[in-house]
Every structure is written in C-alpha cells, then in structure tokens.
C-alpha cells in the first residue's frame, strides 16, 4: 500500500489547489524526475473520460507523444515548446475531470502495492513505458472525433503511467489490456464503417 506521507493523490491535489503556476511547464518544474508519468496522467485523463471531446484534446495527445519520444531518447526532464508549456491544466471547465482523476488515483492507491518494482527502475523499463504511451496516445489521436473511441486508449495510458508512479506491474498489465481493447475496437468499428461506406457507394 502507498504510505500516507507519499500518496500521489495528495501531492497532486496539493499542487492543483495551491497558489501559483498550473501550466504544463509548472507541473514539469514541480514534479521533476516524475514529471513524465505525472504529465501523461494529466494529459490523457480528459480524453479518458467517456465524453466526446470533438478532437479538442488532440494537442494533449501530441504533447504526450513528444514527451514519450524524449523519454526514449534518455532525457531526464521534458522539453516542450514555450506555447505548449503555457497550456493551463486547471480551470472551471476542467474541475470535473480533475475530481474524477483524483478519485481514480485514490482507488488505485488503496489496492496497489509494489509488484515487480524493479521493472520501473531501469532504462529498458523507461523505453517500454514510453513506447506504450506513444502507442496509446497515437490510438487516441487517430480515433474519429465525437465517437468516444479515444476513451479506452487514453485510459490505458493513464493506467500505465500510474503503474510507473505506484511501481505496480498489475496496474501496468491492466493498462496494457485497456489500450489493446481500445485499439481493437477502433479497428473493428473502423473496418465496419469503411465497409458500410463502400456498400452505399
């Protein structure tokens, strides 16, 4: 179980509700070596909710992909263009998303414990993590807008990122299965849609 003194949900809530910069750049400065995983959680949390976004979250998915590519390259901190660093992560329109995210994190914290923690503490593990983030974020990005098909890939990335922060391989497996289910659903429904269009034509 997570120690009461080191709960991610408490750290995240404290940062989100405190005074000061609540931008992507501000998060990177506060969480430093954990900023990759924390940023992936916050960026993909919005499309992970079962609500149509109309493609509005595509920039979040692109930021996640760029960050993951830097993790593959071995960077310790995230570099982002100034415009992206200035993106606000909080605000009235996003409060419900943040509440739902904190609720999810607290549920996972109650059941999680270090499982195969060594997988998350080496270079190879970081590369695998980054590649999974790239795959899940790309799947969410490519999902047709207003279909909700970005939900499962994005949720998978959130779970995989939380598994890194909690050092729990079981959550990583759950996240991987969620990404796989989302990609499969996109392929199946996408193929059906294409066949339907060909049938009409």
Q: Please state the average pLDDT score.
A: 81
**In angstroms, what is the radius of gyration?**
17 Å
What is the string of SSEs from the N terminus onward?
A: HHHHHHHHH
Helix and strand content put the structural class at: mainly alpha
Helix content: 55-70%
Tell me the count of domains.
1
The largest β sheet comes out as:
none
Number of helices: 9
How far the N terminus sits from the C terminus, by CA atoms, comes to 57 Å
How many strands in all?
0
Share of residues in strands: under 5%
Point out poorly predicted stretches: none
Described by the principal axes of the CA atoms, the overall outline is globular
Features:
201 residues; mainly alpha
Give a description of the structure.
- This protein is mainly alpha-helical and 201 residues long.
- It has one domain (4-200).
- The protein is built from nine helices and no strands.
- Helix 3 (35-48) packs antiparallel against helix 4 and helix 4 (58-72) runs antiparallel to helix 7.
- It is globular, with a radius of gyration of 17 Å.
- It starts with 7 loop residues before the first helix and ends with a helix.
Task: Please give the structural blueprint.
Elements: H1 8-17, H2 24-31, H3 35-48, H4 58-72, H5 82-85, H6 95-111, H7 123-142, H8 151-166, H9 169-200
Short description:
The protein is 68% helix and 0% strand.
């Amino acid at each position: 179980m997570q120690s009461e003194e080191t709960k991610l949900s408490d750290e995240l809530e404290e940062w989100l509700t405190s005074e000061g910069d609540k931008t992507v750049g501000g998060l990177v400065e506060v969480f430093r070596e954990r900023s990759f995983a924390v940023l992936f959680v916050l960026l993909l949390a919005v499309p992970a909710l079962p609500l149509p976004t109309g493609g509005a979250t595509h920039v979040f998915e692109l930021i996640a992909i760029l960050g993951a590519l830097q993790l593959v390259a071995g960077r310790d901190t995230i570099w982002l263009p100034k415009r992206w660093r200035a993106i606000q992560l909080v605000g009235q329109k996003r409060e419900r998303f943040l509440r739902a995210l904190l609720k999810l994190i607290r549920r996972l914290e109650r059941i999680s414990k270090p499982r195969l923690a060594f997988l998350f503490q080496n270079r190879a593990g970081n590369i695998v993590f980054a590649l999974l983030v790239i795959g899940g974020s790309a799947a969410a990005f490519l999902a047709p807008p207003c279909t909700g098909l970005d939900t499962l890939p994005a949720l998978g990335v959130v779970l995989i990122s939380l598994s890194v922060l909690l050092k729990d391989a079981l959550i990583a497996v759950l996240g991987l299965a969620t990404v796989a289910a989302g990609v499969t659903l996109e392929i199946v429904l996408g193929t059906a849609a294409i066949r339907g269009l060909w049938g009409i034509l």
